[in-house]
Amino acid sequence: MAMESFEDDIKGIVLQLFDIGALKFGNFKMKVGINSPVYFDLRIMVSYPPLMEKLADLVWRYAQSIGIEATVLCGVPYTALPVATLVSVKSGLPMLIRRKEPKAYGTMKLIEGKFSQGEECLIIEDVVTSGGSILETAKDLVNDGLVVQHAIIMVDREQGGKRNLTDRGIRMHSLLSLSKALSILLENGKLDQKKVGEVREYIAANQVFSNEDLIPKRRLWLSYSERSALAKNPLACRILQLMGEKKSNLCVALDVPNWSELVRLVNLIGSDAVVVKTHYDYIKDWKPSCQDELTKLAAAHNFIVLEDRKLGDIGNTIMGQFETLTSWADGLTMHSICGGDSLKAVREAKVDSRPHGVFVVAELSSQGNLISAPYTKKTTELAKEFEDVVAGLVAQNPLLENEPGFVQLTPGVSLKAGGDNLGQKYVTPSDAVLARGGDLIVVGRAITRSINPKETARQIRQELWSAYERRIAEGQTSGS
Prior knowledge:
Residues 249-460 form the Orotidine 5'-phosphate decarboxylase domain. With 480 residues, the protein is of the alpha/beta class. The protein has helices at 7-20, 49-65, 81-91, 132-143, 161-167, 178-187, 193-205, 224-228, 234-246, 259-269, 288-301, 315-325, 340-348, 373-385, 429-434, 445-448, 453-478, and strands at residues 23-29, 35-40, 72-75, 95-98, 111-112, 121-128, 150-156, 171-177, 250-253, 275-278, 304-311, 331-334, 357-361, 390-394, 407-413, 418-419, 425-426, 440-443.
């Protein structure tokens, strides 16, 4: 349904808002610190139930017309709450309430209501100037594991709010702009041309652009090169830079039983890979000299070495392992099972000046694994707490969507979806990037056991990069 279908309804609401004094003209101090010749005071609507119901009905019809598929909604406190409540009743969508401050007793929650991790929440707001209130609400929703991509606004004052929200990954849909309201009031004799001109001059001269990152930009919508500047861990920064430079997001898992086979494969696929992932204790003839040779191969082919050791022990042991293994590996994988002290040990380990970091296992690609949703959530929280040492997460689903400085390492990828007889599940390259939210995609046996590893690596690299470019393009469209 096109926006034009709502013209009569919008015209009627504007005239009613003017008549009840919810749309005022004069000289008003705004929340953003500037004076305004026009003020929308939609709080007064609670005394006019028919008007409030009409507006709620219009909000929901508009949401349906633009195809928003949120599963919960949240009104920005406090003015938008009555309309959001009515929208919830009309739509059947569960409503969440964001407190401006947590309770000092009981659960001490900021977000009240029932929801699941990863659900998409539609924000409803009354009037937008800078968009700051929406960003504050979105930040708390995202921190509780919700996804926020859309906000429906009753009135856009056209002073920079849409741009501020778009820059932070939220698409704003407004029922009414201030310019449209002025035109309706002028056409119906409520305002004269002089007053309309004054307000329009005010809009043009008073744009409010926020520099505050109240909610970070979306990881999946930014290019790797852009994200490298946002990484707090030096290895994450280097990986993101290298992906942009090589135009590749391929990580090859070289799980082979002997050293000569690893060298053969590296010389075939090294130029296509950003990262080579090893299991050094899988190689039967591994010896200290292999470390130096692998370092030289990495320099020659310009890739990063990730030892998939999956550290998981007390802090003192992990510190020693990290110091030993990073003498030749750039990064290591590790479990979060021992909590924050294990990451503290990584932080305090004595290593050389090369970029180092860890990828923490938040999810596994093997069927029947014992990782639970609460474990994954706690792992993401630890990653953010130790962002200086954590390069990213090993994950099968989009995690840390609003933390673009982290790299999501997604394993279990082959040219065709399927699995093996030991519980490994495979997804396609495009699914790994688009559906799973992967940044750096791990491909192993599809390449190492191929008749032509070089050609297979090149084909998968191209598919992965095409999927990444599509993801960026879709993000730009969603944010426009």
